[in-house]
Amino acid sequence: MFTLLPKHLSSKETYKLLSGAVVPRPIAFVTTVSTVNGAVNAAPFSFFNVVSSDPPLLSISVGRRNGVMKDTARNAAEMKEFVVHIVDEDLVGDMNKTAASLPAHESELDLTGLHTIQSDHISVPAIREARIRFECRLERHLTFDHDGGETVNDLLIGRVVCIHLADEVYDPEKGYIRTEALRPIARLAGNNYASLGETLSVERPT
């Protein structure tokens, strides 16, 4: 077994290990409103998960580029709102296009065939084609520094204020998400993604 100490690794080496080992990861496809000109910025993030159900909180970790905040983090931190969409098999191609580095005044959605729709409780538009979307207000914005003291990461904690579910993915009688209908996509390492694939059930001990 290999034993590695992060202090002996470069940030790139650590990233490759963490992103390759912590798999599969859900993908947050996030829209925000640009602080520059009001354009709808969109970007995917796979360092993403649920923090709490009561209150309903989601976390998105946004790495900085050469110490500069990415559009999503800056917009969310200043505007205090964002929308998180769950990526499914139909969205993955367009989602990938929005990972392109564009100036803050340009909308990544212009690179795609996706359309926006007005949110119900916040001012940030959502992606109409997404089967699940969460309207969020910023609960916390935390920053993290590397060992050299430079701020390299923005952690956004969003409080879910509204949930939109397509008819085919929600069972209103049981209150369940039909994952087989959602067909979610998960992030692996490099350029690789995974579909839902085979599932298994294991009863929890009482």
TrEMBL record:
SMART domains listed in its UniProt record: Flavin_Reduct
Protein name, entry field: Flavin reductase like domain-containing protein
Organism from which the protein derives: Bacillus sonorensis L12
GO molecular function, one term: oxidoreductase activity, acting on the CH-NH group of donors, NAD or NADP as acceptor
Domain Flavin reductase like: 20-178
InterPro entries named among the record's database cross-references: Flavin_Rdtase-like_dom (IPR002563), Split_barrel_FMN-bd (IPR012349)
Family: Belongs to the flavoredoxin family.
PANTHER family assigned to the protein according to its UniProt record, in alphabetical order: FLAVIN REDUCTASE LIKE DOMAIN-CONTAINING PROTEIN, FLAVOPROTEIN OXYGENASE
SUPFAM superfamilies named among the record's database cross-references: FMN-binding split barrel
Manganese among keywords: no
Necessary cofactors: FMN
Keyword Cell division: no
Pfam families: Flavin_Reduct
Keywords, alphabetical: Flavoprotein, FMN
